[in-house]
Amino acid sequence: xxxxxxxxxxxxxxxxxxxxxxxxxxxxxxxxxxxxxxxxxxxxxxxxxxxxxxxxxxxxxxxxxxxxxxxxxxxxxxxxxxxxxxxxxxxxxxxxxxxxxxxxxxxxxxxxxxxxxxxxxxxxxxxxxxxxxxxxxxxxxxxxxxxxxxxxxxxxxxxxxxxxxxxxxxxxxxxxxxxxxxxxxxxxxxxxxxxxxxxxxxxxxxxxxxxxxxxxxxxxxxxxxxxxxxxxxxxxxxxxxxxxxxxxxxxxxxxxxxxxxxxxxxxxxxxxxxxxxxxxxxxxxxxxxxxxxxxxxxxxxxxxxxxxxxxxxxxxxxxxxx
Length: 322
Prior knowledge:
Elements: H1 3-11, H2 15-25, H3 28-49, H4 52-101, H5 105-109, H6 113-120, H7 122-132, H8 137-157, H9 159-179, H10 184-207, H11 209-214, H12 218-267, H13 276-321
């Protein structure tokens, strides 16, 4: 987690609550992976044996475990996660508003009205989204736990296939999650600054439209609004292109690794791989690893984008604490 977001959480008194929420939700993906992999292996073996009665018993057993697992996750989400998200929004917006009120007139005039409005609304939302929005820090942490534990299980099941999966995964992950997206925060921050300019020029159109027409200022005002709008679009499109390329890298890595695993697993059938049911179980864990890697990569991209809001919020809160 970025140190600026940690400082914001601690200043709001929500750091411990967030850590508890993270611990409670972190095992869900891995437990779901274990359940799915074992269910697939068991059903394939029972189907080969043509044992309908045993198939029915296993179906109800796995259904019960699935309901309990998703019930646990829904309970944590409803009782802890939603409450923490609401508290974060409430406390952060209140703290930022109180900080703005405590500024001197000179400090307030250093930024435009549009800039203050953007920090109080859009930037607060982005800071909260960095932590709890789908495809962000919370989901990245859950995916990392799933990635590590699924890797351990796959290594125990078949070390050679695990090594093959890792060798394909690591270079593409580094390319997609580190190199490609490194400039996204810069583009998003510029887009936020352009949006603040846009709001500043829209305000006189709304509040002083008649005066603008009297003094023939409509053309220059609309020109400034147009320039700000184009700047927002330009910077956001740069960020979107990098995000799309990162996703392309992940998809290519996933398909390539899956084909390699099937080819190697087929050559090991009957020796290092017991049967097709076990190979399916192995591919399930490899699939969980790849899904977790893609989730981490996508989360990194979204976190980089939302970090621009946290940076702008911390500029105000940090300045006041100095």
